[in-house]
């Protein structure tokens, strides 16, 4: 009897919930984390709560935009993330955060954010589909671009039909604002490029490519990238003259705006000031493609002009030096060229520089390197020298016969000399 009474006395609180069980229910998300990680999560949750109590979403987004204007993308990301913590289903904030992560090069996070935005609002907001199309390939990329195009064209149609102010405001709040014909045009260009590259071996790829470019030009007839893409397509189908017309139309839409003001006549300057703003020039890489197409169309002078402008923007791009050398080589071969000797010297200088950059930048394009070496050999032979003999010229012109290993050593030596001069 005494033992039973003792047993009852020892267990008076059997019906009370244990503290351990309460903790596991309240912190299920912390299971499996170390004590340090749990502390970090708790501090983050506390900071989120404090932020929500102190700042509104609009205030956080205002700070986000301010940081973006000052190119402080890391802080912009923090402010935007805090805004998303308060409104996790806001398409506007999701797309803003996705764009910031994309600018920072965090592809995985940007993809995660844009996929969540697509899940929450699949039929509103086109920019997420544009980014998802860019980071995917083949048919999957086309499906994303096509969905983005569908949303943009729907917005443009509503604008043309005169949507009510309420509808316009709703569209803006859901990320559907600021859609232009140029946006749709570039999206169709992206689709065309996929048919031109990733899916070029599929049946009907050429027709799909041309159809996409045609639609692009319907939305922005003077878009330089669309015009150039059409030129590339026509060159690939052996329609050189027609392609040349599209190419020159593309170049003429942006090249004058890049020329120095002193190179423009007074009338051209007045027309430029009074007329509409010219379209922005294509990106750097696209203009390299422009120069290649100009060479193919035998528009050597324009090709040189485009390449020299690219060189002014960035003189560490090996391909630009190589193309400059190639164009000058082609010019000096013309029998009626009065400046063949000058072009020959320029070709040799450009190709030598390209060859040095090839080593310095650790490029991996053996056919291009072989072509450079062959052109330099031909140039030495044209000048009456032995193709296998080393020259004794000064500066860059003597490195075209030096082994590649020695060229790499020369870069190291040159860098050391530059450092000593600076100090």
Automatic annotation (TrEMBL):
Listed Basic residues bias regions: 1-21
Gene expressing this chain: LOC114773593
Keyword annotations of the record: TPR repeat
Keyword Flavoprotein: no
Region (Disordered): 1-36, 259-286, 381-423
CC annotations in GO: membrane
Keyword hit for Cell inner membrane: no
Domain of life: Eukaryota
The name this protein goes by in its record: Uncharacterized protein
GO BP terms, alphabetized: determination of ventral identity
Sequence ranges of the TPR repeats: 91-124
SMART domains for the chain: TPR (SM00028)
MF terms (GO), sorted A to Z: phosphatidylinositol binding
Start-end of Acidic residues biased regions: 387-423
